[in-house]
Amino acid sequence: MSSNLKRARTEAQKDFRRQQILDAAEAHFRDVGYEAFSMGNLAKLAGVVKGTLYLYFKTREEVFLTLYNQSLVRWSQVFLNRLDRPMDDNDYVKILYVTAMADGSFVPLLARLEHVIEHNVAIERLVESKRIFIDRVAKIAETSAAILGLNQPQALEVVRTMGVLLVGATRADQGPSLQGEAIPADVQALIEAFSSENIFIKNACRIIAGVRADASPAE
């Protein structure tokens, strides 16, 4: 991308430049991960000087928070579009897992959200992010309630819990990749039993059943 970009002056030009930076940031994040992500390299990829980045994002974490917001909206729309009736609990949670993992940015950013990212952003950006979360959770819960046979408070409890479970389950996949290796059947069975997909689906189904059976879930 050319580094000789004209200065953005109009609001439309600033919005375009901001999205251009975010597109480069997401590509950079997917390529090198969180720890190796560099604002200097982002500036080069976006075709701007480093100082320009800070006109749009005050900190590195603010870039990540904005990427998380984008990924949340993007993933949730894909997930909602995949839902259908009738659908049993297992199909529901499997679609949730598959769509979340397929996004590429959503789960890695979600895993770092409260622990790291939210600690170095302006309060205005944090409030904005939380409101996006509230809106998306409400939309998912509204659709999920009818599919899962839950009332709205129960559906909200399920959706909120799924995010926590997803982050925890995906930590099971941090071992070395053994794809293409000759693994004995008993060891392969053990690996599959502790895969994030199996852990998530089994426990997510149990959570839904438990919430459904609870006559007065916490709101």
TrEMBL record:
UniProt keyword terms in alphabetical order: DNA-binding
InterPro entries noted in UniProt: Homeodomain-like_sf (IPR009057), HTH-type_TetR-like_transc_reg (IPR050109), HTH_TetR (IPR001647), TetR_C_34 (IPR041483)
Superkingdom assignment: Bacteria
DNA-binding region: 38-57
Record keyword DNA-binding present: yes
Classification via Pfam families: TetR_C_34, TetR_N
SUPFAM superfamilies: Homeodomain-like
GO-annotated molecular function: DNA-binding transcription factor activity; transcription cis-regulatory region binding
UniProt domain HTH tetR-type: residue ranges: 15-75
Name of the featured protein: TetR/AcrR family transcriptional regulator
